Amino acid sequence: MLRVDGLSHRFGNRAVLSDLSFALDKGGFAFLTGPSGSGKTTLLRILHGSLPLQTGRALVAGHDLAALRPSKLYQLRRDVSVVFQDFKILPERTVVENVALPLTVRGTPKARIERRVASILTALRLTELAHRPCAELAGGEQQRVAIARAVVAGPRLMLADEPTGNLDWELSLRLLDILRQFSAHGTAILMATHNRALVAAAPDAMVITLGGGEADPGGFDVGQAAAPDAAAEATP
Amino acid sequence: MTMRLIFSGIAAVLLRPWAHLGTILGVSATVLLCGLLALAGIGLDGAFARSQGVVRFQVYWQKGSDPALVARQMDWMRALPGVVEAKAFSPETALAVMRGSLGANAEPALPGGENPLPYTMLLGFALPGEDEGFARETYARLAGVDGVAEVRYNPVAIDAMRTLGLLGSRAALPLAALLALLVGLVVGNTVRLTLLRRREELEILRLVGATPWFIGLPLVCGAAVIGFLGSGLAVTLLAFVWSEVAGNLGAAPLWLDMASPPLWLWLALIGGPTLVAALAGLAAAMESNA
Predict the structure, then answer these.
(1) Residues in contact with B231: Cβ distance below 8 Å, sequence separation at least 6, in sequence order
(2) B204·A90 Cβ contact <8 A
(3) Which label site among B113, B190, B270, B288 has the fewest CB atoms less than 10 Å from its CB?
(4) SS3 A222
(5) Which domain holds residue A32?
(6) Which site among A74, A90, A92, A142 would you substitute to test the B interface, given the most B Cβ atoms closer than 10 Å to its Cβ?
(7) Which phi-psi region, left, alpha or beta, contains residue A149 (left: φ > 0; alpha: ψ -120 to 50)?
(8) DSSP run (H or E) holding A20
(9) Helix (H, G, I), strand (E, B) or coil at A23
(10) Domains, in order of start, for chain B
(11) Which chain A residue lies closest to B201 (C-alpha atoms)?
(12) Which of B204, B209, B210 is closest, CB to CB, to A88?
């Protein structure tokens, strides 16, 4: 589902990612951890086609990023969804309209959109908010809308960039549980977080730990479960 | 799918007209200004072209002149050599023309309804070459008619009109190009900046897998609607201004016969900005993809 080989990325003279390799199978769940500036968001942006692949190879949901033309980027994004820390939802539109967006842009028939959206809203306990503008929702509710939008079209891979960054501990755990359920249904999930307690809450998940900002070829423990230190960082 | 995208682009503007009001008014103001210049240029150019080689005299009889005598004198004047146009006004018809020019709020008649206007006649003579002597001699002949109180004739104004007409015909193309450039820059940039306010929405659409076509087509259609509404409003105002101005210029003292603007000009004033706005929509879509 996701295979990265020797991926490196630089911003000017600063190496952000260096010789990174890992793989994630269908239905797999992996945490992407590391301190601020370690390249978590950069990696997710590369995998989603928002940044160009500079060095190495990345096969993402069957798309070879090195060979992907900009005009075909939408094909990658129909197979790979993203949940952003800042949600990136349209505040003036309703929950239903936001969640339906990935299906709408695919030209899915209206009846099928309604069925699929209703099902996802039920799963994420958003049914009662369905017709409220997202601007009126609390942060946790908006986050669930973002997740609903990310899974509604059945992506093969979901990238989540610090999705618990604005949530309290209880909501973070609930979000993790929701993501694990989608993972169990076949969607591979790569979730960036610096919350070690959250990583500790899913001990069976793969952990990809990125190093600091400067070039550090040895700064990655790819595919190795990091030792979560809940006491050090978690503030549930 | 394509029709749905087109309708969604149009609906985005029509369902939220107030959000686009500033842009529509900006387009309107630009097209209105350019349209006024174009109409003035075309109208005056036509008027000058028709007046070239023609010198006009306005003859005023004394108040209370004998109508039968005036009628005979008018016939004599119409038969003068070189006359190409002649308009005769009785005091009543002159008063009616003046009422039409001044509008409902002004009354040219004296208290008691007395008509202050005399018999008048407007005569146009074809100038034989550049013969200024002909104009002076004709003036003397008309002024010498029994009962004629005054003859107005302004060769300087005619020369000025002739020169302006010549300049107008030479400046027409550069002026048209300048106006087109002005419309293109102002309308294009205004619409493009308006659409780029939706950058965040466009970014989200791209992130969820929208094709460039899905994003671009509604933007182009919405922009075209903005251009059409703006230029349509401007052309409506222009038509109103034209009817008012042309009527006044066609009366005393200018007697400029302003023919109706050609259909292609109206079509260009609507179609041009609409096309420019659509192209600006395309530019905004491409820019948001960059």
Answers:
(1) B27, B28, B31, B269, B270, B272, B273, B274
(2) yes
(3) B113
(4) coil
(5) 2-88+155-233
(6) A74
(7) alpha
(8) strand A14-24
(9) strand
(10) 2-49+160-289 (no CATH), 53-159 (3.30.70.3040)
(11) A90
(12) B204
Angle between helices B21-51 and B212-249 (to 10 degrees): 40
Helices B91-102 + B212-249 axis angle, to 10 = 150
CA distances A160 to A96, A164, A189, A224, Å, are 21, 9, 7, 19
Supply the CATH number for residue A166's domain: 3.40.50.300
Q: What is the pLDDT along chain A (236 residues), one digit of tens a residue?
A: 899 999 999 998 888 998 999 999 999 999 999 888 889 999 999 999 989 999 999 999 999 999 988 888 999 999 999 998 888 999 989 999 999 999 999 989 999 999 999 999 998 889 999 999 999 998 888 988 999 999 999 899 999 998 887 778 888 888 898 889 889 989 999 999 988 899 999 999 999 998 743 333 333 333 333 333 333 333 22
Compute how many other C-beta atoms are within 10 angstroms of the C-beta atom of residue B257: 14
Three-class DSSP category at A192: strand
Q: Check if B6 contacts A (Cβ < 8 Å).
A: no
The count of domains in chain A is 1
Q: Which of B170, B172, B165 is nearest to B51 (CA)?
A: B165
DSSP helix/strand/coil, A125: coil
Residue B286's closest chain A neighbor by CA? A71
What residues in B contact A105, CB-CB < 8 Å?
205, 208-211, 214
B183 contacts B276 by C-beta, under 8 angstroms: yes
CB–CB contact B209 A77 (8 Å): yes
Cβ of residue B1 closer than 8 Å to a chain A Cβ: yes
Task: Please check whether residue B222 is in contact with residue B12, taking contact to mean a CB–CB distance below 8 angstroms.
Answer: yes
Task: Please state, in angstroms and rounded to a whole number, the distance separating the CA atoms of residues A97 and B204.
Answer: 13
Residue A226 lies in a domain: yes
Residue A61's identity, in one-letter code, is A
Inter-chain residue contact B207 with A153, CB threshold 8 Å: no
Q: How large is the ipTM?
A: 0.81
Phi–psi pair at A174, nearest 5 degrees: -65, -40
Q: Which of residues 204-233 of B touch A (CB under 8 A)?
A: 204-212, 214
